Amino acid sequence: MNLKELYQEIILEHGKNPRNLRKTEGFNKDAKGNNPLCGDNVHVYLKLNGQKIVEDASFQGSGCAISMASASIMTDLIKGKNEHEAKEIVEDFLGMIKENPELKSKYLNEDEKTKLMCLSGVKQYPMRVKCATLSWHTMVSAFDEKTEEVKTEN
Amino acid sequence: MNIDQIKKEFPIFDEKIQNNDLVYLDSANSSQKPKIVVDRINEFYTKQFSNVGRSVHYLAVAATNLYENTRSSVQKYINAKDKNEIVFTKGATEALNLVANTLGQSYLQEGDEVLITELEHHSNYVPWHFLRKSKNIKINFAEINEEGEITLEEIEKKITPKTKLISITHLSNVTGAILPVKEITQLAHSKGIIVVVDGCQGAPHLKLDMQELDCDFYAISCHKMYGPTGLGVLYGKKKWLEELPPYQGGGGMINEVKKDRISYGELPNKYEAGTMATAQVIAFDQSIKFLESIGIENVMKHEADLVEYGQELLQKNNSVKLIGNPKNKGGVLSFTIEGVHPHDIATILDEDGVAIRAGHHCCQILHDKLNIPASARASVGIYNTKEDLDQLNESINNCKKIFNL
Domain count of chain B? Predict the structure, then answer.
């Protein structure tokens, strides 16, 4: 276990100053998620344009540095992607957080991969995986227009 | 009293936890177990096992005697008037559900009011909420003051002519406030109101005397009391336990079963349907012996010293904010660090072998009131030392360093 791997500078920075921590004006997809055991909660907003491309993504909520950084990085890199691309990225991310050593999606550029890999330290802390994944599951729920709240248990 | 000696009675402290000595500061969640309790479970299963209260063979009779022996020990330990006032349950949660359910069946009526407090654990709120849904009773909340206490005056203020029952914690698992249960009970009884006490945090750390407290019900969690999991105790005044209907139906709780009628057994069998947590009950006798061997006055003195020491230490630590500052405080230090979420605190402390809890501690009402989503909590038991709290403080400093505070 290595705390420095978990709390990399970029995570601390995103945790402290999360990007897109707001409510997108004119959003057309949204979903809520919460970790009942932790009390973490997140509300993800997406604005898709006529070509079904994410024009803006944002979130509101509260949680630990890991969950805030994860939501911050996610909402940043999902902009400009369509639903199919976004969902593949989610799958790739979830696979990496749980077991895969690297990200494979062709929809991620090197810079985006580097940023996301900063969250890979979480896999050594099983209790914290749900902190990193909550906003991602919630985004999928927003795409799918599910009305019930996402509850993440690892 | 030699704490090093007492600590040696707990095998877990011989273990290395991720290469660290264990600094266990999560006893409000669950306590560690002394060797005599662990050994007793093993011994019972290895050499003495049988179900209790049913068969007439030698092992069954012996096991029944051991089981009933613990009931007598609990009665003595909490100074209940009658042995049959002690009911074993699967936990304090079940004990509180039993009380709410049976009072709901036969005593509380639509429109009646139940007074609880903002300090309550979910297990002393949700069972009453069930009655709010099913019977249309009303739940009122006594509010905390700035110190995180519930005062007698606040309780008095919230009592209305419709208040039928007050259900309160003995000791808050977040602020550590010890409630004036005896005085609240006197006041309540003078108005014909029943008093239920959630004793989860009280029982392991305070002197218990049911006849002096005079409350009508008192729920105990055995695993927080150096005992096994899966076991709780409900103390209930005999008149109530006799008058109220059964909670669960099944074997052991009946008197006579016919196609057209069923009569129920006497106390305490009436409330112990099905095969109980036999080994746990028998081992719990050793937990009581363990506490008696130290003496509850010594336990209280040791933990009061620890909490005073810890409080001073954390108060001096910049950016640590303690939650609550009650005059009468049990061994709980809940805190937040400005700029670090409690889950991050807990993970970072864990790296040093310091086990604390982070979250809402099953007290969302209180955290909402304090306007924080979660808190970190260090809680002490008989095996903790001032060195443990020094380590806590040092690990908090490391946490601040990681977060550049």
Answer: 2
Q: What is the pLDDT of residues A43-69, one digit of tens each?
A: 999 999 999 999 999 999 999 999 999
Tens digit of each residue's pLDDT (9 = 90 or more) over B257-274: 999 999 999 999 999 999
Does one domain contain both B201 and B220? yes
Which among B66, B107, B86, B396 is positioned nearest to B219, based on CA atoms? B86
Final residue before a domain boundary, out of B292, B327, B359: B292
CB contact under 8 A, A64 and B339: no
Q: Are B168 and B271 in a shared domain?
A: yes
Residue B345 shares a structural domain with residue B398: yes
Q: Helix (H, G, I), strand (E, B), or coil: what is residue A144?
A: coil
- Looking at residue A70, its amino acid is S
For chain A, the C-alpha Rg in angstroms (whole number) is 14
Cα distance between residue A5 and residue A120, in whole Å: 8
For residue B384, the enclosing domain spans 3-27+295-402
**CATH no. of A3-144:** 3.90.1010.10
Active site residue B362: yes
- What is the reported pLDDT for A153? 55
Interchain CB distance below 8 Å, B351 and A128: no
In angstroms, what is the C-alpha Rg of chain B? Answer: 22
From chain A residues 51-70, the ones with a CB under 8 A of any chain B CB are: 62-66, 68
- Express each pLDDT in B138-192 by its tens digit: 999 999 999 999 999 999 999 999 999 999 999 999 999 999 999 999 999 999 9
* Nearest chain B Cα distance for residue A32, angstroms: 16
Residue B83 C-beta-side C-alpha neighbours within 13 Å: 9
Residues of B with CB under 8 A from a CB of A: 18, 339-344, 347-348, 351, 358-360, 364, 367, 373-374, 402-404
In this complex, do B340 and A65 lie within 8 Å of one another by their Cβ atoms? yes
Whether B32 is in a domain gets the answer no
- In this structure, the answer to whether residues B94 and B211 fall within a common structural domain is yes
Residues of A in contact with B404 (CB under 8 A): 12
| Min Cα–Cα distance to chain B from A9, Å | 9
All residues of chain A having their beta carbon less than 8 Å from the beta carbon of residue B348 are 3, 7
pLDDT tens profile B221-234: 999 999 999 999 99
CB contact under 8 A, B340 and A63: no
Q: Among B200, B215, B362, B399, which one carries the catalytic annotation?
A: B362
CATH number of domain containing B222: 3.40.640.10
Contact between chains at A7 and B373 (C-beta distance less than 8 A): no
Note whether B105 and B212 are within 8 A (CB): no
Average pLDDT value for residue range B380-397 = 98
Could you give the ipTM of this predicted complex?
0.88
Domain range summary for chain A, segments of one domain joined by + = 3-144
On chain A, the residues whose CB falls within 8 A of the CB of B344 are 7, 64-66
Q: For the segment B44-89, what is each residue's pLDDT rounded down to a tens digit? A: 999 999 999 888 999 999 999 999 999 999 999 999 999 999 999 9
